[in-house]
């Protein structure tokens, strides 16, 4: 099962981490409008329950880290928030609105999956632009893609295909895709696992 969360206001402010259990009912704070709120959230596959009675509230501008053993439901939790899978019970609220019936593309959420999630036939530049190509003019779209790619030092690889990149480069391209979308909610599933330490700290600061 999921163990605990770490919540903090700035990614570098590790000393300000606060711990609270994910299934504690008082984790849901009632005196402010949360950006993301999970209420009595449960999810199970045929083989049994994965998540049970999760209560979590995240304020706007806050960073939250979810910890737990492999297979405990961390990825399932992110996929539920993104709308890719439906919870067995409980609610998912964005700014107080229940979004369980809202499709993933209309949730204003960017998810960086454990694997790159990039289309093999698309160049990295086109893949980064997928989420914004229908809502921005070409000039602004290209600028947004370049800016995001520079943040992760991938601006020199925009014409490459995924098969031409290393595992770390694919992870960086996935992060760039999330940055380019400028979504209100960003879900990162071990996004820096294959990235060298120096660049990892730079991305965290950006």
List the helices and strands and how they pair.
Elements: E1 4-8, E2 18-21, E3 36-45, E4 48-58, E5 63-67, H1 74-82, E6 89-94, E7 97-98, E8 109-112, H2 124-129, H3 138-151, H4 167-181, E9 185-188, H5 197-205
Helix pairs in contact: 3-4
What does this entry show, briefly?
The chain is 26% helix and 25% strand. The chain contains 5 helices and 9 strands.
Walk me through what this model shows:
Strand 6 and strand 7 form a beta hairpin. The chain contains 5 helices and 9 strands; from the N terminus they run βββββαβββαααβα. The strands form 3 sheets. Strands 4-3-6-7 form a 4-stranded antiparallel sheet, with helices on one face. Helix 3 (138-151) packs across helix 4. With 206 residues, it is α+β, with helices and mostly antiparallel strands. The protein has helices at 74-82, 124-129, 138-151, 167-181, 197-205; strands at residues 4-8, 18-21, 36-45, 48-58, 63-67, 89-94, 97-98, 109-112, 185-188. 26% of the residues lie in helices and 25% in strands. The chain starts with a strand and ends with a helix.
pLDDT averaged residue by residue: 80
Q: Number of helical runs? A: 5
End-to-end Cα distance: 32 Å
Percent of sequence in beta strands? 15-25%
Share in helix:
25-40%
Largest sheet: 4 strands, antiparallel
Query: What Rg, in angstroms, do the CA atoms define?
Result: 17 Å
Q: Tally of extended strands?
A: 9
> Which series of helices and strands comes N to C?
EEEEEHEEEHHHEH
Shape: globular
Low-confidence segments: 10-33
Biggest sheet: strand arrangement: 4-3-6-7
Class from secondary-structure proportions: alpha+beta
